[in-house]
Amino acid sequence: MAETQTYQNHTRWYPLVHFVITPILLINLIWAAVCVVMEFEWFRVQYLLLSFGVALLSLAARLQSLKAQDRVIRLEERLRYREVLSPELAKRAGGLRTGQIIALRFASDEELPALVERTLNGDFASTKEIKLAIKNWRGDHLRV
């Protein structure tokens, strides 16, 4: 069973991306830049550009997958709002920003209405403040 999730441990690391692919691509990019500086030749510049492009490709792939996950979370939470919140509050919750919805997903059903109300009233300056206000943490163990 997964460990109980809290604000302190909710950050997810994807080892293949964070500890293997990204370091390899960064080392390769730095090495390519060093080679160009040490001995300028056009094929080294070409390799540097290719290294830079592959690093950007990896970053773009990661950002696109996170954006897709954000869209799914937004949809799940809007469906949850229909079940847990009053119809009027659920309608008003449509005005929440995606980041706020993503932060509120950790709130238990019992405390969600009050937190949504406070968020809509502007009581929180950041998504971190929303997460810190949650007392009964509802873990999200699927995000990578």
Helical amount = 55-70%
Strand content: under 5%
Main sheet, how many strands, which sense, barrel?
A: none
Taken from the alpha-carbon principal axes, the silhouette is elongated
**Strands, count:** 0
Total helical elements:
6
Structural class: mainly alpha
Rg from C-alpha positions? 21 Å
- Distance between termini? 17 Å
Mean pLDDT: 94
Helix and strand sequence: HHHHHH
Instruction: Domain count, please report it.
Output: 2
Residue windows where pLDDT falls under 50 for at least 5 positions: none
How would you describe this structure to a colleague?
The chain is mainly alpha-helical. It folds into two domains: 13-70; 85-139, no CATH class. Helices cover 67% and strands 0% of the residues. The longest helix has 43 residues, at 42-84. It is elongated.
Secondary-structure map:
Layout: H1 15-38, H2 42-84, H3 87-92, H4 98-104, H5 112-120, H6 127-133
Primary descriptors:
elongated, mainly alpha, 144 residues
Task: Give a quick precis of the structure.
With 144 residues, this protein is mostly helical.
